[in-house]
Design brief:
By secondary structure, the chain is an alpha+beta fold. The protein has helices at about 10-30, 35-55, 55-60, 65-85, 90-100, 125-145, 165-175, 175-185, 205-215, 215-225, 230-240, 285-305, 325-340; strands spanning about 155-165, 185-190, 200-205, 240-245, 250-255, 255-265, 265-270, 275-280, 315-320, 340-345, 355-360, 360-370. The strands form four sheets. A four-stranded mixed sheet has the order 2-1-8-7. Strand 4 and strand 5 (about 250-255) form a beta hairpin.
Length: about 375
């Protein structure tokens, strides 16, 4: 039982946990060990690379809020059940995890516990489906960033998500904020057609169309070039379009023309199945400064790991840096300090600490545990 109702991402990982219990149980009942083992890989990836990563700010919150408590309750439930599910396969590691998590009322060993039983009350397959769509879209967006040499840490202005399948679009819209956060964009725009970011260009199929229109070919070519995006979309949808040339009605079909899709300038796009994702790659000063702040967060957290700081350690930061980085911090200092668990920030005139390149801005960073 949980102290308060879970938010979507908590309900999602608990639903995935129930899916894992069911799949592993089914595999063991059939003595098909590969079916019992395979689901672990996907589940652990979902747990570590999405759930824990997305909830770091909840785990690190200084105040004991309901939201923080709920995040820990959810993670505790998942981990202790994962230890029990994995116990037949990795007995010693499962025992180590369990001993760290168990309470005084629990059995002394994970191997004395009952195997978890599938509980459909915690299963939400619609939410799992939504999150699957989200992960597909995010993967496409990250691939577009890589192709454009744009780090995920660099905020962008907008992303477009298009699908002709209204149910898919509805599922994605329900997770709009999560998509925006994962793609690191300010706005996510959902469309049922691609005209928001794709220009349709039409070319006559001279070999086919020439036989149909004869001497009117030149006039037909001009008329096609002047068709609006709306008219071209109608041609695509209905597979026919009427042109009136010199008082003659010419019925065009998709065989008579070739339509080329060209992504508008400043956008890159890709498609998977019925979903198209496009991102706006244009960067302005506001976005670049925020990108600098996020780059600083990445470097400080790298230093925390290298210095073996505990994830809960609060730190003090000293910087010798450029005016551009100082400008970014004047806007985003609260964000930076929250993300790195910083309690004090000061600037130094001396080149002390580790040297880093923050998107071309040479910066010396020194950090220390706060007393």
């Amino acid at each position: 039982q949980f102290s308060t109702p879970q938010i979507d991402i908590d309900r999602w990982i608990l639903s995935c946990l129930q899916g894992l219990i069911k799949e592993v149980t089914d595999g063991l009942d059939r003595y098909e060990l590969h079916r019992a083992v395979d689901p672990f890989v996907k589940f652990i990836d979902q747990l570590t690379n999405l759930y824990i990563r997305r909830n770091r700010s909840r785990f690190w919150a200084e105040e004991d809020t309901i939201d923080r408590r709920l995040a820990f309750e959810t993670l505790y439930t998942v981990l202790i059940n994962l230890a029990k599910i994995a116990a037949p396969f990795i007995p010693f590691l499962s025992e180590g995890i369990y001993l760290y998590l168990k309470t005084s009322q629990d059995p002394q060993s994970v191997h004395l516990c009952s195997f978890p039983i599938y509980d459909p009350a915690y299963r939400d397959q619609l939410l799992e489906e939504q999150m699957s769509y989200v992960q597909t879209v995010v993967s496409m967006g990250h691939a577009l960033r890589k192709e454009s040499k744009l780090k995920v840490r660099q905020p962008l202005r907008s992303a477009f998500i298009v699908s002709s399948e209204s149910e898919v679009l509805k599922q994605l819209e329900s997770q709009k904020q999560l998509i925006a956060d994962e793609l690191n964009v300010k706005e996510v725009i959902f469309k049922e057609d691609e005209t928001a970011f794709v220009l349709l260009l039409v070319k006559p199929n001279f070999r086919v169309l020439g036989k149909k229109v004869g001497k009117l070919m030149s006039a037909v070519k001009t008329a096609l070039e002047n068709l609006s995006q709306k008219e071209l979309n109608r041609l695509l949808e209905e597979n026919q379009y009427e042109l009136i040339i010199e008082n003659e009605t010419i019925l065009l079909s998709s065989d008579d023309i070739a339509i080329e899709r060209r992504v508008k300038e400043g956008l890159v796009a890709s498609a998977t199945g019925s979903v198209i994702v496009a991102i706006d790659t244009a960067l302005d000063e506001e976005l670049l400064l925020e990108g600098l702040a996020r780059e600083l967060v990445n470097k400080i957290n790298t230093m925390r790991r290298d210095l073996s700081f505990a994830v809960s350690d609060r730190i003090e930061i000293c910087l010798h840096t450029t005016e551009k980085v100082k400008q970014a911090l004047s806007i985003h200092q609260d964000y930076v300090m929250t993300q790195v668990l910083g309690v004090k920030l000061e600037y130094s005139s001396k080149e002390e600490g580790s040297i880093w390149d923050l998107n071309g801005e040479k910066t010396f960073i020194a950090i220390a545990r706060s007393e």
